[in-house]
Specification:
By secondary structure, the protein is mainly alpha-helical. It has one domain (2-165). The chain contains 5 helices and no strands. Helix 2 (48-69) packs parallel to helix 5 (130-165). The longest helix has 39 residues, at 2-40. The radius of gyration is 20 Å and the shape is elongated.
């Protein structure tokens, strides 16, 4: 089971990294085009702002899922580092489970928002505003997968250390 979750976590991270790379390149090109069109050609691209906002939202939330995979997301270590190792491990597991519960709520509500905004479009681009909102629940699914992997690793480490101590 643990290796299946690890493979799924690795695969979702690979997808997030590749999509993020494409989005960074696209945003760089679009921003450069925007500057050239506005200041050199004196013809601003009216659709650029809304397109950039959608791309940026996806970059932010996919980046957050990548940070979860690499265990580099924001966390308060002072509490965990001030207690014995076995207590710290349990605290980490509890924190990860609480985070998973929060993200499951976000996924549920996020997809509800996507459903409610699917028929709304942006003013300057023929794109549903749901694509903007979809970035968070999709990335939250990735984050949950990474957190499940982290919890399983913590549980497995505990079992391994208990066996070594006997």
């Amino acid at each position: 089971m643990n290796s299946l979750i690890k493979k799924l976590s690795d695969m979702t991270n690979f997808i997030a990294v590749k999509i993020s790379l494409v989005l960074i390149i696209a945003l760089t090109i679009l921003t450069t085009m925007g500057v050239v069109y506005r200041y050199v050609l004196q013809m601003p691209l009216v659709w650029l702002y809304e397109t950039s906002v959608v791309i940026f939202a996806w970059m932010i939330f996919l980046g957050a899922s990548i940070a979860f995979k690499q265990r580099e997301h924001i966390k308060l270590e002072f509490l965990v580092s001030s207690v014995p190792e076995n207590v710290a491990r349990m605290l980490k597991i509890i924190i990860e489970i609480i985070t998973i519960a929060f993200l499951v709520f976000v996924i549920k509500e996020g997809f509800e928002i996507v459903k409610n905004t699917w028929n709304q479009t942006y003013n300057t681009i023929n794109l549903s505003t749901a694509w903007f909102y979809l970035s968070f629940p999709v990335s939250a699914v990735f984050m949950v997968i990474h957190l499940i992997e982290a919890v399983l690793e913590l549980l497995f480490e505990k079992n391994t250390m208990a066996k070594e101590g006997q």
